[in-house]
Amino acid sequence: MASKRSSRVSKEPVAAVEVVDEGAGKGMTFEMGLVITTTILLLFAVFLVMKALGNDYGVGPFGG
Question: SS3 of 55, please?
Fold first, then answer.
């Protein structure tokens, strides 16, 4: 036989949850600093590779 389960529902009112928006804050966050630093380093690495290809093999935008 299947047993009958009784659901227990609280009759007490539930307190409202207040969401606090901390805002953007002041200054740059660590994550944004990391993104900007990584982007600059990657662009510099691409530039160095193109410069090396131009100097060593004479190809690419800096070859000639």
Answer: helix
Give Cα 20 to chain centroid, integer Å.
Answer: 22
**Rounded Cα–Cα distance for residues 14 and 21 (Å):** 22
The pTM of the whole model exceeds 0.85: no
Give which of 39, 38, 64 is closest to 51, Cα–Cα: 64
The answer to whether 54 and 64 have CB atoms below 8 angstroms apart is yes
Task: Convert the pLDDT of each residue in 24-63 to its tens digit.
Answer: 677 889 999 999 999 999 999 999 999 999 999 999 888 8
